[in-house]
Amino acid sequence: MGDVIRLATLEDAVVVHDVSIRGYKPLKDMDIKFVGATADLATVEENIRRNANYVLERDGRIIATVTVAFPWALGERSIQPYPFIWWFAVDPDFKRQGVGTALLDYVEEQVLVAQIKAPAVYLATATRHPWLVSIYEHRGYVGFYEHEYEGDTIIFLRKVLDESLFAELGNVDVLVNSK
């Protein structure tokens, strides 16, 4: 049957919750307070209802998940006018097998570029995590903003997906809701 990437449904919430909790366990063990590490089932269901939550299935089993939140869904929390990638987790049984790369590649290329026509995308992670910042930088993300959250320095990184459209729209480097 192979790998299938699709939008999650509410029927997937229990499995998405399990993958998230197990995938985020190393961050929870480091006391990094990300929603994916501590979310309850109701929070997962709300995420699926409110955002574009993609899952990667292998032979019918959900083994990875990532959410794309759009500025209108983030409201005051949106600091850029671009989609925001978050709540990205891979089942620990499938780590280091290219599963996360395949899911992120699909979301960036097939959804954000081909369908949404997004000029850029951004995400955030804790600077003290030993490898996440460098993984995202390797994927072409560049840091543009840092702030403190729950005792951690959070870095926001952006990836330009369409150089000409990004330039045409004025290289939005300002924080939309900075106060």
Automatic annotation (TrEMBL):
Higher taxonomy: Bacteria, Bacillati, Bacillota, Bacilli, Bacillales
Gene3D superfamilies with a match to the protein in the record: 3.40.630.30
An example Gene Ontology molecular-function term: acyltransferase activity, transferring groups other than amino-acyl groups
Keywords, alphabetical: Acyltransferase, Transferase
InterPro entries registered for this protein in UniProt: Acyl_CoA_acyltransferase, GNAT_dom
A Pfam family hit: Acetyltransf_1
CDD domains the UniProt entry points to: NAT_SF
The protein, known as: N-acetyltransferase GCN5
Range of residues in the leader sequence: none
Domain N-acetyltransferase: 3-162
